[in-house]
Design goal:
This protein is α/β, with parallel strands linked by helices. It has twelve helices and eight strands. The protein has an eight-stranded parallel β-sheet. Helix 9 packs antiparallel against helix 10 and helix 11 crosses helix 12. This is Dihydrodipicolinate synthase family protein.
Amino acid sequence: MTTQFRGVVPPVVTPLREDRTFDEASFDKQINRMIDAGVHGLFVLGSSGEVAFSTDARRREVLAATQRVVQGRVPVLAGVIDTQTERVIEHIRVCEEYGVDGIVATAPFYALGGEAQVERHFRALREATDLPIFAYDIPVCVHTKLSVDLLIRLGKDGVIQGVKDSSGDDVSFRLLCLRNKEEGHPLALFTGHEVVVDGAYMSGADGSVPGLGNVDPDGYVRQWNAYEAGDWEAVRAEQDRLADVMKVAMSAKGISGYGAGVGGFKTALQLMGVFESNQMPEPVSALTGENVEAVRAVLVRNGLLEG
C-alpha cells in the first residue's frame, strides 16, 4: 500500500479570490505546474491547504478540482483533519467518494485523552476505510506528539501506512526512521520540515511534503533526484538554496504564524504570476506593502523572479 507514496509530495496551497471564494483557475495552474516539475504526488487539504479554515463545501470544491486536473497522473493524498473521530470518518467518506489514493489524519484534538485514546482513534479510522492512512504528526496544532512506539505499533498492525512528520522534532524523526528500518519498513515516512530535508533523507525518509514546494517544486525534485543518485553534495547544496528561499515564509513583520507562513507562499505565487491573489481566509490578513516587497526580494535573489 505504501509503494506508490515516495518522493516529493507538496501540500497544495489553496488559492482564494479577493472575495475569498475558491480560485479554481489558479488552483488548476498550480497543480499542473507542480506535476510538470516532476513531483511524485500531491497532498490537498493539509495545513498549507487551509483545511482548518475550510467548510465541508470548500473541501468538496478542492477535492473535485484536484481529481479533475490530476487525472491519475500522480497519487493524491487528502487531509481528513477534524477534532474527533466521527467527524474525521465523515470526511473520509467524502474522500472515498472523490477517489483519492490515501488520507492524512491527525490525532484527535480539543477533547484530549492521552495516548490510548489517540491509538483508538486511528484504529477506528482503519475500521472505517480501506484507504491508506497517513498519521499527521503536528503537535503545535493538535497538542499531542505521536510517539515512535505508537507509530511503529500502528504500522506493524496495518492500521496506518505512513507518517507525515511536521513535529519539528528531528531527533524523534531520526529515531522513528531507525525503528522503521529495524521493523522491516512498515511505514512510508515523510518530513514536512522544509529546511532540513537533506537530513531527513540521510535518516531514511521516503520523501518530503514541503510547503515551499508550492513555490519551488523544481528545487525539491532536483534534490530528490540527487538523493536517488547518491549525490549528497548536490542534495546539501540544493537544501542550502531552498533554506534561503524559505525566507518567503519568514520575512513578514507584524504578522506571525499562518499569515506569515502560508501568506508568504501565496504572496510568492502571486508575484510569480501563478495566483491571481494572495488573499487569506478569515480572520487572517494577506501580506501587503513592505511584507510583499520582502517576499519579492527573496524570489529575485534566488532567480525565481526577475528583478
